[in-house]
């Protein structure tokens, strides 16, 4: 290796997620265990202003400039479940004082009054998901809430000169019992850059070596979701149970030097709070039916042309209707109003994708009980100075799942210890106009879940720790 060999870690992320819940279990009916709860309040007069609900989140770092803002969509979601998403034509802003922006922020504003369950929300631009969230559960006097999300990473899509479709899905059902209609505004704020300085360029690019910089945002975003139209539903793919596999095809241009798959995940019905799902041996030994099972471990497996390329072990998002809705008002559970997405670095496998052919990307969920809502965006970086790049996978190590479940119970009482590890590591090179780049991508997962059932099954305590490490190391080998 020559002296230009410059390894360094560009992204290191360690998440230690600890999750602990205590709740009533057996013999409470199944619907209360994993379903949602509604709160009951006396109807009030109209004298009170609506309550403001919110999520505690890190503030978005904004430049010190005035945003150019557009209200894109104003819509009332009544009986919207199983209907096409609300949609509008989107064009990039043309009447702003600047045509270049350093930060782009999506703003969700909504009001609701009455009674309603927590509903799932998705927003897509040209089929690429930008935002996923749960609604807040309203009160009789009415509520209002605002969510802001930094969507600058979708820059190439947002600034494309084409007319695109912005689709907003909120699957609401209205009847005499759940009567809340969600009144929603979706806006985008475009922040022009501060006066040009050297630090400015530094924040938008990542240096691989002194001669070349990687652009921070992809040049192209390819949606891996359902086609719109015609569609009487949201754009996510629905994965039912553990043997279900959903596949989409895609092709990339010939001059790509980096690919990242961004995966959005959320869960409905029986798996909504999967870290407290019972192991099946406990259910069968106690003749329990109608309870969510398959134990507390879930893994979203992502495959490319039939081979595993990465995985997602999702963070547990507690919806505003789960466990006890009074816990989530006025402050929601962590990330309930802005569900995280998960990045998988595909670059080491780029070599097999550069042949101009269609390729398959597939999702499945280990141990899934119905139903998982999954889609993805393929972020693609193009080599502007080359018509064709090439690449090769050097090495890939995928550890099989190390999954141990230790059940020790008598009747309804006992302890269950689940411990799972997985590691996926790929190395490959890509030849570009600025040299050969070797990329190493690693995902390390470790989960420990201790579930204790006490009081003749009347109390359940779950203590879960999940750690994820993602490392992406590109190095230029000069040439
Ligand atoms: C730009 O045009 C859009 C659409 O006509 C409008 O909503 C927005 O308020 C305008 N923005 C400015 C800064 O004039
Ligand atoms: C959203 O709601 C907040 C709080 O009610 C308000 O301050 C803000 O102006 C609203 N934004 C839009 C774009 O409607
Ligand atoms: C939505 O926008 C309209 C028009 O600006 C405004 O009157 C209304 O209060 C907004 N609603 C919310 C929930 O922000
Ligand atoms: C859009 O951009 C492409 C590539 O930059 C260009 O070839 C095309 O003419 C543009 N179309 C319009 C309508 O501006
Ligand atoms: C809703 O309430 C109205 C009036 O009380 C009643 O006529 C109707 O049958 C109810 N609908 C349902 C689905 O319960
Ligand atoms: C479960 O059902 C089987 C067969 O119906 C019965 O033999 C067994 O005693 C039951 N076990 C419990 C714990 O109720
Ligand atoms: C491939 O990875 C394994 C395990 O990380 C390592 O032992 C081996 O040396 C690697 N082989 C190459 C050719 O890099
Ligand atoms: C199972 O639980 C019982 C009661 O708590 C305990 O006495 C026993 O040692 C446990 N067995 C194992 C293998 O952990
Ligand atoms: C996995 O996490 C558990 C609990 O935090 C810890 O005890 C264990 O050592 C970890 N295992 C690995 C392989 O990192």
Structural features, described:
Helices cover 5% and strands 47% of the residues. With 479 residues, it is mainly beta. Mean pLDDT is 88; it is low at 1-34 and 199-204. One 2-acetamido-2-deoxy-beta-D-glucopyranose (NAG) binds at residues 71, 74, 109-111, 183, 185. It comes from Lactuca virosa. Residues 63-396 form the Peptide N-acetyl-beta-D-glucosaminyl asparaginase amidase A N-terminal domain. Residues 1-24 form the signal peptide.
Mind sketching the topology for me?
Layout: E1 11-23, H1 30-34, E2 51-53, E3 68-77, E4 86-90, E5 103-112, E6 120-125, E7 128-134, E8 143-150, H2 155-158, E9 164-170, E10 182-191, H3 198-204, E11 205-209, E12 212-215, E13 220-224, E14 237-239, E15 246-250, E16 256-267, H4 280-285, E17 299-304, E18 307-312, E19 341-345, E20 359-366, E21 372-382, E22 390-398, E23 402-410, E24 413-432, E25 435-454, E26 459-476
Parallel strand pairs: 2-8
Antiparallel strand pairs: 1-26, 3-10, 4-9, 5-8, 5-10, 6-7, 6-9, 11-12, 13-21, 14-21, 15-20, 16-19, 16-21, 17-18, 17-20, 22-24, 23-24, 24-25, 25-26
InterPro entries: PNGase_A, PNGaseA_N
Signal peptide: 1-24
Organism: Lactuca virosa
Morphology: globular
Low-confidence stretches are 1-34, 199-204
SSE string, helices as H and strands as E: EHEEEEEEEHEEHEEEEEEHEEEEEEEEEE
- Secondary-structure-derived class: mainly beta
How much beta, percentage-wise? over 45%
Largest sheet: 6 strands, antiparallel
Helix content: under 10%
- How far apart lie the N and C ends? 10 Å
Number of strands: 26
